[in-house]
Please model this.
Amino acid sequence: MDITTELATGPTDEVRALVGELEDILSAGYPPEQRHGLSLAAIFAPHVRFFVARADAAPAGCGGVALLDGFAEVKRMYVRATARGRGIAETILARIETAARDAGYATLRLETGDRQVAAMKFYERAGFRRCAAFGAYAAMPAHAISTSVFFEKSL
Model:
């Protein structure tokens, strides 16, 4: 299987579908105030790099990195269920890490939900360690982050 990643430059139908699938999964498990994913418009802000992964040319996953003040943050990481276990998540994360390093960042952070057990195990295998709420999350009311789990990794 050939896995590639490409920088998405706008909200294509493929990007809309992937982000929509992720949002459907998250909305089934978390109320709106506990979902902190970027909107489609925000994914294409100048400080965000967003990637689409392809397996044998078919869209299989996505993920982005927001380049913030002092750290980079993984955003909207997702692999379709039918494509999991094939190294696609690792490929997306490697691209995100490279983009963050190339932009001069030494720390990569992320927020995920406490029901995303497979995601948390993946991030831990990839070298992330749990950390306290950071950035804008640290200023949110407790109920907005009560299901959030925070991770960071030195690059």
